[in-house]
Amino acid sequence: MRPKAILFDLDDTLISPHQHRTVFWREAITQIWIEIHGAERALPHKLNAVVEAIDGSAHHFWSDPARHKAGRMDLSLARFRILSGGMGSDNRFSESVRWKISERCGDLMTASTTLYPDAIYTLETLKSEGIRLALITNGAGKPQRAKVERFELESHFQHIQIEGEAGVGKPEPEAYLRALDALQSRPNETWMVGDNLEWEVAAPQKLGIFAIWRCPHGIGKLPGNATVAPDRVVTRLSELLH
């Protein structure tokens, strides 16, 4: 049965940098190192270990809900703290160099981010069927709004809700209820689509919303430590049309 309305997540649902964050950390370190020391000097010793440590720091940083909320409102500072947490006391990288690396990593991720190939077609088709669409995204207002504008998403949604602008974000119940009110839809008439099992599956299910997990890796398999069960799993957005 088709829904009256659908709530969409943004990052890793409609758009993605399409590569793991370690790729961008490695490239950022390499670029800044060469800019400072020249291409003739060897790259940092045990670069792989440095990148792995940064990734471990990222897992730790984002695992705490309070830290996650603060971090996504200031990604520049969050990246610096993650980088410093992974590098520790490594004196090859001064504070100013760490800032340069963390900023470069963010720039590389932004440059690599694109729409999923079937995103616009899916949105246009759903809208043509009379289904009401809302975009609910967490994060600071300015960078998230920039993504909406960069990918020209405004015309596809009746309601766009950005955490930093709205003052409320997922998984707070008010985030979903506000969007439902804007679309004049009840929970049992609505789907939520996104890649985060807590924000786009567990939380909306508690409100009676049909929760669809959009597998960000395209394999359709839940993580081994998953404690929630989506109502449906899709690997491509266009699967929502069938």
Largest sheet: 6 strands, parallel
* Proportion of helical residues: 40-55%
The strand count comes to 8
Radius of gyration: 19 Å
Counted by DSSP, the helix tally is: 10
What's the order of the H and E elements?
EEHHHHHEHEHEHHEHEE
- Tally of separate domains: 2
Q: CATH homologous superfamily of the largest domain - what is it?
A: HAD superfamily/HAD-like
Overall 3D shape: elongated
Which consecutive residue ranges, at least 5 long each, have pLDDT under 50? Answer: none
Note down, in words, how this protein is organized:
The mean pLDDT is 96. The protein has helices spanning 21-37, 47-63, 65-72, 75-87, 95-112, 119-128, 141-150, 163-166, 173-183, 198-206, and strands at 5-8, 15-16, 114-115, 132-137, 159-162, 190-194, 210-214, 232-234. It is 48% helix and 13% strand. The chain has 242 residues and is α/β, with parallel strands linked by helices. The strands form two sheets. Strands 5-4-1-6-7-8 form a six-stranded parallel β-sheet, sandwiched between helices. The longest helix has 18 residues, at 95-112. It has two domains: 5-16 and 114-241, 3-Layer(aba) Sandwich (Rossmann fold); 21-112, no CATH class. It contains ten helices and eight strands.
Question: What keyword list fits this structure?
Answer:
6-stranded parallel sheet, elongated, Rossmann fold, 242 residues, 13% strand, alpha/beta, two-stranded antiparallel sheet, 2 domains, 8 strands
